Amino acid sequence: MVKRCKWAGNDLTMQKYHDYEWGVARYDDTYLFEMLTLEGAQAGLSWQIILNKREDYREAFRQFSVAECAVLTDDELEEIRLQTGVVKNKLKIRSVRSNAIAFQKIQMEFGSFSNYIWGFSEPIINSWEEEADVPAQSDLSDLISKDLKKRGFKFVGPVIMYSFMQAIGMVNDHVRHCDFK
């Protein structure tokens, strides 16, 4: 029997995400933008809700093409809010465009967003005994959050950034008993 972190539960979408994405180091800018967007959308909601809407997000936000998201018009963003299965929060939807613009500026400065974000840290492999031991944020997530906010990003608080770090494998927080450690 496969042992997983408890948060993956019995939901196949959550289990697939846990098994193949969470804690796995990723360097592709499109994937990084997707995770940044989804983690921001998750604020105040469950990750399961967001994962269940992931395909709607991909369709609405042009497969997370940074270039296409950066030029979405107000009318297009409103249509996305009204006509798609994404979280209906207007500020979260508008943040996709503003974050795409800020993301592009980082790409121009650092060559890629990956170069920028991975410049903060090599992958951190934690060894927690139980999920209750896993922090919601860290000094590193606070540092990244502050830097992103200075660069114009929205929905990038320290808790969101810690989740983002887990999502892209900058932090591996699988507990010791997990087969995917």
From TrEMBL:
The keyword Metal-binding applies. One of its GO terms (biological process) is base-excision repair. GO terms for molecular function: DNA-3-methyladenine glycosylase activity; metal ion binding. Zn(2+) binds at C5, H18, H174, C178. It holds the Pfam family Adenine_glyco. The keyword Metal-binding applies. This is DNA-3-methyladenine glycosylase I.
